[in-house]
Amino acid sequence: MRTKQSKANREARAAGKARQVRSSALGKLIIMLAVVAAIVFGVAIFFKVNTIEIQGNTVYSADQIIEASQIQQGDNLLTVNKALAVGNIKAALPYVEDVSIARSLPDGIIIQVRESVVSFAVMTDTNACWLVGPSGKALERIEPAAFNENPHINGLLISTPTEGEAVSSPTPTALAAALDVMKELDGTGLLEHIRVIDVEKEYDMSIWYDERYEIKLGGTDELAYKIRYLCSILDQLSEFQAGTIDLTQAAQKRATFQPAA
Are residues 166 and 211 in the same domain? Predict the structure, then answer.
């Protein structure tokens, strides 16, 4: 009888311990869920977008960029889709070349943009006129009569473009030559001074710097070196000088300057 009672007691104690273990595990799970819920609630309540700062903009206003991003005050700061916002800005604002978005805890968003501040007028094969940025992106359509009033590209026709997208041309080699010239000039401080890029003859290209210098580049061979050479030459010339700079033999480390008459 005692044996049976002892066995029953052992079983009862074992069952009690099992219940305690289950109860303890359930309690820990409930605590973990409560902590997670508190964190989620805290994120939702405290990490909301309150300020949106725009940096680097000169073409578009801060309000235009914020509206294009579709980020709004009150959005959850930690779940803002930065890639989507970047795409929204580039799609809506063609002058924007690059965008970066950063979170600034506890409640800020910083949007840094780089815009095309230089553009060149280019005629289309249907006699329309567009402004094109250094990257080859169509920025906006303008009146053909304004072609010569803007920095422009001679010897190139483009196909009718879509605003904000890369242009194409029935003469792709001429387009490639023009883009190469702009690419090498971009970032040197010279592009802002270029009035004309002439690619009518891709082997005999030239550019006009302000109203002072005609610069003969020849072909696109050694173009990066020619532009570096040009920077060095311009540093040595007086701001009162004008004339023709011939870089067609720059590969042989030869360049000539012919003063204007």
Answer: yes
Same domain? For 170 and 77 the reply is no
For the chain, give the secondary structure using H, E and C.
Answer: CHHHHHHHHHHHHHHHHHHHHHHHHHHHHHHHHHHHHHHHHHHHHHCECCEEEEECCCCCCHHHHHHHHCCCCCCEHHHCCHHHHHHHHHHHCCCEEEEEEEEECCCEEEEEEEECCCCEEEEECCCCEEEECCCCEEEEEECHHHCCCCCEEEEEEECCCCCCCECCCCCHHHHHHHHHHHHHHCCCCCHHHEEEEECCCCCCEEEEECCCEEEEEECCCCHHHHHHHHHHHHHHCCCCCCEEEECCCHHHCCCEEEECC
Q: pTM score, two decimals?
A: 0.77
For residue 117, the model assigns a pLDDT of 87
- Domain boundary among the residues 88, 115, 142 is at 115
Tokens representing 185 are 């000039």
Assess whether 128 and 199 both reside in one domain: yes
Residue (of 120, 112, 111, 116) closest to 96 by Cα position: 116
Cα(85)–Cα(110) distance, rounded to whole angstroms? 12
Q: Do 181 and 101 share a domain, yes or no?
A: no
pLDDT (0 to 100) of residue 47: 83
CA 213 to CA 257: how far, in whole Å?
A: 9
Which segments of the chain have a pLDDT < 50? none
| Same domain flag for 141 and 30 | no
Q: Which residue segment(s) compose the domain that 79 sits in?
A: 51-115
